[in-house]
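Internal ticket #5521
Category: modeling
Description: The requester needs a full-assembly model to guide mutagenesis choices. All entity lines are attached below as received. Residue total reported by intake: 844.
Assigned to: D.W.
Attached entities:
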Amino acid sequence: MASDGELSAAASAAREALDAHTVETVAWHFHESTGCPFWLDKKRELKFDPLTEVKSYDDLKKFPAFEDEWLRGGPVRRWVPKGLADQPVYVFETGGTTGVPKSRIAIDDFRTDYSNFSDTLPDKYFPKGSNWLMLGPSGPRRLRLAVEHLAQHRGGICFCIDLDPRWVIKLIKKGWMEHLEAYKKHCIEQAITILGAGHDVKCMFGTPKLIEALCLELEERGTSLAEQGITGIFSGGTEFTPQWTRFCVEELFGGSPEKSGIYMTPTYGNTLMGLACSKPVTKDDGYKISYYAPQPRAVVEVVEFDDYNQVVPYGGTGRVKLTTLTKEFFVPGFLERDEGEREQPFAKYPWDGVSGVRPFHELADATTVGVY
Amino acid sequence: MITLPAIRWGEPYESLEVDEIKHFLTGEPVARVNTVGSGIVARDAKKSRRARQALQSMTPAQLIDAYKRAGELFESGTLAVGDAQQSATDFAEQTSATTGMPVAMCKANVVKNAFVLKNIDKILDCLTRGLDLNILARGYGDEGRGVTVSYQAQTDVLGAVLPSNSPGVHTLWLPVVAMQIGLALKPGSQEPWTPYRVAAAMKEAGIPVEAISIYPGAGGDIGGSILSNYRRAMIFGGPQTIQQYAGNERVQVHGPGYSKILLGDDEADNWREYLDLMVESVYRNGGRSCINASSIYTPRHGKEIAAALAERLGPIEALPPDDPKAGLAAFTTPGAAAAIWGAIERDLADSRTTHATADYGPRLVEQETCAYLRPTVWHCQSTECPGANKEYMFPAVSVVDCPQERMLAEIGPTLVCTAITKNEQFRSDLMAATHIDRLNLGPIPTPQVDWLQPHEGNLVEFLYRNRALQVR
């Protein structure tokens, strides 16, 4: 365990790295030769010059609040930095049940995020070379390609299912719960078919709801995830609560990783930010889940509800604010639809984290959770 | 403060997620409720067979004896509920504290629920039309005509998604365990008290604890899981819920009642004789029940009836919950009362509609931590007025001008209909109407329940299928 002094030094070093990375990223996105049309255009409206006046991460507060609407609609190429204009470009979308979805361009970010994430996975439960099952949303989502890259990066092959979360949200909003059940069953049947087809799948991504449904269906059929050969799972989202984790580990898996042979790690992320990893989740710690962003590529802050430039004290509750700082994409201070508590840095991630992530209380009523 | 665990087939379960329920007036926490997710409901459902088997280890006679003891205990015992010993007074006060209902009304509902438990033999006798309960328990038997009759349970457990509005509605699921069917309950977020106290009383009375689960948690999540995991379920909700489950044989839906009083041509001129009945029908139980009258249809004197009702109901004030005279329940959800009043005001803006309680002071009374709506009466000159057939969770009634010959075509689905008429043809038409559930022929207040009658859907018919069986 790191001493206070070591932790403090690591935190300072991380902060310096973040400051330097911020200056470098801003310089890239706002320089006429490398920046993207959107930011170069926006630069004219700013009351400061990002090229000379952003000297640290804190200087990003000079930017106005990032508006969701900027991500809706085309031309999407306005987000492609000139410095990367000759690269093949992906577009990933979020939302889209009603209206125009938010979209972001990506070139290699999703691969980088998941290659980095791969380093956090224990080889014992995520054996190199093993095959994967991606039990999550398909379509214009980042996740499918990202998980597929993760599998490939670790020397495996990824199997996927069809799942349209936009249809799932419509079913929930219409109150067609029987159709929702039927659709969930349809997705689970695809997963069980893959698991039973001799593909030697050992690792998987699954959303909490689908992991739960898969385990219950396997139990119904007299088998279990462990018997199907699964040893490593990563999952994510605001539904990944301590209570759900406890139920899942203790009842659906049959105990701790040592006992059941299944290791599950939560993650928090989205199309804009990348992937925040969790501090190891243990029974002794009440299955508490704390996420840490992949700094300096992305930063998570917990900010006051009435002042988004002010972080809350450690342990305090606030809204989750994301900042993305890569050469492909620059998003200063995007307000997530979530809230949580600010967590202390620790040895592995010597910067702030967030725990207790849940839908932002002022938006919660309008948010459809439990999507897939 | 009391801590209520989730109950999983009798076993208390402490969750890592705990909701605090607060006193509607003081804001003080009253209970900590351990909430669970849908996965636990789904997983436990796989063991539902055991719940029924545990109940089948008792004979119907033993179960009935236990019910009677449970009724006494529920009404006046001190019971182990959660981590506390709960007296009958504690129970009424706690229920009032979180639902906003006056304490006296909560006490009245205790009597109602206890009556069902204590008189379960008579109630089952009525619901089964006198069937020997041993036939239900064994699955078949001779009814006495030399013919074998057989009943097949349609589920091991009834799932129920319960409301928060009034403890009185719990009477609907109370008889289930006596029919050797288990219960998986999602209590209302503001009213977990009755399910917990019933379960505690049943446990104390010797009914197997494995028969009952209680799952507090998010409505959509737990409710959805209960409805999809049990072959028979009961749910309470608004018009949207009714529509969603209409025609679904697995689900019995209890929604708004749109209960009504109809004055026939022959009795309309005698309306003053029935004023007490009308007031009681609108006002009893704080007007919160689906069996409270929400409309009065009359061929004549509508304006006078509305004025007379307003004179009686209009002055009623919102009193503190511990005042024995308190007759109105508070709205504890922020903004709810104001939103309802907004909807009523829009209906009152109609030129054919008159607000009869307008002269008795403001109806919306907003307090620091809650709000009240005082009784409201309006007169509609036509059944086409927007307020002609609305129902709200407080004493609110529309008096609607409508010729007798148009009444049955205009009233729409009606849970309780009190028809004041001696006209045999009209009575006969009322009998034939398929959109009326409970029919009171003559001056009987709409909330008056005869527990020896089937109410809001016969439970026996919902839980058991009458089928052919031949034995050699």
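Resolution: model delivered.
Comment from assignee: The mean pLDDT of chain B is 94.
Ticket closed.
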